[in-house]
Amino acid sequence: MFEKVAANNNNNNINHQTFDVSVDVNQQEASKFFDDDGRPKRTGTVWTASAHIITAVIGSGVLSLAWAIAQLGWIAGPAVMILFSMVTYYTSTLLSACYRTGDPISGKRNYTYMEAIRSNLGGLKVKLCGLVQYLNLFGVAIGYTIASSISMMAIKRSNCFYKSGGKNPCKMNGNIYMISFGIVEIIFSQIPDFDQLWWLSIVASVMSFTYSLIGLALGIGKVVENKGVKGSLTGITVGTVSETKKVWRSFQALGDIAFAYSYSIILIEIQDTVKSPPSEAKTMKKATLVSVTVTTLFYMLCGCFGYAAFGDESPGNLLTGFGFYNPYWLLDIANAAIVIHLVGAYQVFTQPLFAFVEKNAAKRFPNSDFINKDIEVPIPGLKNPYKLNLFRSIWRTMFVITTTVISMLLPFFNGIVGLLGALGFWPLTVYFPVEMYISQHRIQKWSTKWMCLQMLSIACLIISIAAAAGSVAGVVNDLKSYKPFKTDY
């Protein structure tokens, strides 16, 4: 009997060993296709992350930089731009370290900016972050709709000027162009997830380099044509504008430059597309360095050469300045590239907002087929059918329609850009990353490091308040001569 029990125990041991081996094999197979959180394997790299960041950063903001430098002058303009780039890079490295809570390799993932706040700070700050972040994303969608219509009008106007020999003022209404952009965005908004946008980001990045290079080339050409560099050390002179307007414009310029560097609101979402090892924080640190360096170089070149070309008369949108109507075909290429880029940038910024609303709707109504059920729609030429979700389609369509209508009501490019930059820069790019870093590393209150971080945060808060005030003043001034849906440009 003892021998029988021993034999049975041996058989059981063999069976357990076989079972354990099979589990290991299954786990190894699963790890090839899924990450540690059970989601499909992430495939993002330094270069795809950089493409996402460049798509988000080198947007319509680059076009207002010549105007911004014109308000600040040759000394303060470039200095402020370099300062913003350094602050953005530093705080972005702090923020990227918050993607995982605890261990940077195996800690719990935070899929969104709000989740990172919840894990590190909690309480009221989570709601405050969500409010600021998603309002800013909503505003960016409006800003990009306005910018795209300006570029489309510039194409039409340059061709009109060319045909009439400059005799026709070529005034037009931007509403039809905003509606056209909105229709395109309704279509692209049906792309379900952020990680499926990598190809659109790469196309958009190429377009951003295209129009930035053209703007740079035209600026250099204009400087050569003028046989000299325009502008002054202190910016636009009092007399050309009043003292009060000079101050407000200088403040608005800070907002324009801040907007040109705003991508922290989607940094965590971009980081969630990156594969590991190495740790996602290391990859994002490299991607941030590459992106901020490249964009700052482009910004300095485009902004400075634009100012050198036009001086005090630098236009709010570099490529729509009167001096650039020749060669008109090059202007058309540049503005077409802007429109294509903004199609992609709109999606990069709005996808986190889409995901937030859809996730919360699914959580609140888990049994609703309208919200949760996917309908498979076969598409000729594609291997996999498109998964149509009724709630997603309707809500995203309504979102695009809303941003388009608001853009038609407030088509003030510079004022809106400055206001968005001011409202988003301090809380999202500086305050929350600094506070999370202090909490994560348990930095003692009133220590030297704590004081330095708080001084950085307070300085950026003051800059943001000044920029917001200047931008509001600019929008109020524009509203004096504006009629909703009727004003032609």
What does this structure look like?
It is a single chain. The protein starts with a helix and ends in a 10-residue tail after the last helix. The chain is mostly helical. The protein has one domain: Amino acid/polyamine transporter I (Up-down Bundle). The strands form two sheets. The protein has a two-stranded antiparallel ribbon with strand order 1-2. Strands 3-4 form a two-stranded antiparallel sheet. Helices cover 70% and strands 2% of the residues. It is globular and about 65 Å long. The protein has 15 helices and four strands.
Write down the secondary-structure element order.
HHHEEHHHHHHHHHEEHHH
Number of strands: 4
N-to-C span: 100 Å
Biggest pleated-sheet summary: 2 strands, antiparallel
Number of helices: 15
Q: What class do helices, strands and sheet pairing give? A: mainly alpha
CATH architecture: Up-down Bundle
Q: Which CATH C-level class is it?
A: Mainly Alpha
Principal-axes geometry comes out as: globular
Percentage of residues in helical conformation: over 70%
Q: Quick one: CATH superfamily? A: Amino acid/polyamine transporter I
Q: Poorly predicted ranges (pLDDT <50, ≥5 residues)?
A: 1-30
Provide the CATH topology.
Amino acid/polyamine transporter I
Look at the structure and give the mean pLDDT: 78
Strand content: under 5%
Total domain count: 1
What is the radius of gyration computed over CA atoms, rounded to a whole number of angstroms?
Answer: 26 Å
Organism: Lupinus albus
GO molecular function: symporter activity
Keywords: Amino-acid transport, Auxin signaling pathway, Cell membrane, Membrane, Symport, Transmembrane, Transmembrane helix, Transport
Main location: membrane
